[in-house]
From TrEMBL:
Keywords: Membrane, Transmembrane, Transmembrane helix. It comes from the Bacteria. The chain holds residues 518 to 792 of 800 of the full protein. Residues 23-273 form the EAL domain. The keyword Membrane applies. The lineage of its organism: Bacteria, Pseudomonadati, Pseudomonadota, Alphaproteobacteria, Hyphomicrobiales. It comes from Nitratireductor thuwali. This is Signaling protein.
C-alpha cells in the first residue's frame, strides 16, 4: 500500500493481519486432529422439479463442534487449498460421502465438490476410484461438482481426467454457473453433464425481470447442448414455479431442505415416502 492516507494504510494492515491470524488459526485446527474428529458432512437434497423425488444429495463440509471455530466451509476450503490440506481433506470427504450413499441404498446419488487443487496436485481419478471401491457405491451414483476456474486454463490433463471420470460412469456438474467467465458453448468441449445455476441468479427471480430471462435462456441453451440444469438456493415457491415454467430439471435450496446431518437426511427421505 502507498501512503495515500495514513489511516487507510493502518486499516489495511490491521485487516491483513486479522486475516492472517484467522488463516493460521484455521490451519492449526486443520492439522490438529484427524478429520474424523473435526468434521462431519451435511447432506442437502436435490429434487426433481416435476416428480418431487430426491435424486441426489450434495455433501457439504461442517465442523463437528461449531464452538471450536466460526470459520465457514468456504473459509476452511480456501485455507485447505492454500496449504495443500485439501488433498487429504478432499479424499476424506469423498470417502465419507460415498460410504453414506452406499448405505442409503435406494438409488439416491451423492454429489461431491472437488477443488481444482485436487486435479492439479493429486491423481483425482485414482482417489475417486478408491472411494468407489472401498464403499461399493456404483459409479453412476456419484456426481462430481467442479467449478469454472478448473476449466479456465483449458488444460489437456484436466480435460483427460474429466473424460476418464465420465467414462467410468460419473456425472460432472458445473457449480456456480454464471458467476465466472465461461459460455455454454465453451463448456461443450469439456462435456459437462449438468449445470448448477448459481443462487445469485435464483435470488433475483421474480424480483428482477432481466434475471428471469437470463435464467430461462441458460436453461434453454443448456438443454439444447444436452446438459441438465439444477437451480441452487431456491428459497421461495415463486422461484420454484418460475423455474419449472422455464424447464429447469432440478432444484436445491432451503425451500425444500437445508443441508442436514446424515440421520436427519434419512428421516427426511422417509417422510417423503410416507407423505
Ligand atoms: P456450494 O458448492 O455452492 O454449496 C452450496 C452452498 O449454498 C452451501 O453453503 C449451502 O448450505 C448453501 N445453500 C443451499 N441452499 C441455500 C439456500 O436456499 N439459500 C442460501 N442462502 N444458501 C443455500 P456451504 O455449506 O456454506 O458451503 C459453501 C461452499 O463451500 C460450497 O458452495 C463449496 O464451494 C464449498 N464447500 C463445502 N463443502 C466442500 C467440500 O467438501 N469440498 C470443497 N472443495 N468445497 C466445499
Ligand atoms: Ca457445490
Ligand atoms: Ca492429474
Ligand atoms: Ca454452488
Amino acid at each position: 500500500a502507498k501512503r495515500a492516507g495514513g489511516g487507510a494504510y493502518a486499516f489495511y494492515n490491521e485487516e491483513m493481519s486479522a486475516r492472517m491470524e484467522h488463516k493460521s488459526e484455521i490451519e492449526s485446527l486443520l492439522l490438529a486432529a484427524p478429520f474424523d474428529n473435526q468434521f462431519e458432512l451435511a447432506f442437502q437434497p436435490i429434487t426433481n422439479i416435476n416428480s418431487g423425488n430426491v435424486t441426489c444429495v450434495e455433501a457439504l463440509l461442517r465442523w463437528k463442534d461449531e464452538t471450536v471455530s466460526s470459520a465457514t466451509p468456504q473459509e476452511i476450503v480456501k485455507v485447505a487449498e492454500e496449504t495443500g490440506i485439501i488433498l487429504g481433506l478432499g479424499e476424506w470427504v469423498l470417502n465419507k460421502a460415498c460410504a453414506f450413499a452406499a448405505d442409503l441404498g435406494d438409488g439416491v446419488c451423492v454429489a461431491v465438490n472437488l477443488s481444482p487443487v485436487q486435479f492439479e496436485r493429486s491423481n483425482i481419478v485414482e482417489t475417486v476410484q478408491d472411494a468407489l471401491h472401498q464403499s461399493g457405491l456404483p459409479s453412476n451414483r456419484l456426481h462430481l461438482e467442479i467449478t469454472e476456474t478448473l476449466l479456465l486454463d483449458d488444460n489437456d490433463e484436466v480435460r483427460a481426467d474429466l473424460q476418464v471420470l465420465r467414462r467410468m460412469g460419473m456425472k460432472i456438474s458445473l457449480d456456480d454457473f454464471g458467476t465466472g467467465y465461461s459460455s455454454l458453448s465453451y463448456l461443450k468441449k469439456f462435456t459437462v453433464d449438468q449445470i448448477k445455476i448459481d443462487k445469485v441468479f435464483v435470488e433475483e427471480i421474480g424480483v428482477n425481470q432481466d434475471h428471469n430471462a437470463i435464467v430461462a435462456s441458460i436453461i434453454t441453451m443448456a438443454s439444447s447442448l444436452g446438459m441438465t440444469t439444477v437451480a441452487e438456493g431456491v428459497e421461495t415457491a415463486e422461484q420454484l414455479q418460475i423455474l419449472r415454467g422455464a424447464g429447469c430439471d432440478e432444484v436445491q435450496g432451503y425451500l425444500l431442505s437445508k443441508p442436514l446431518p446424515g440421520a436427519e437426511l434419512i428421516d427426511y427421505l422417509r417422510s417423503l415416502e410416507d407423505g
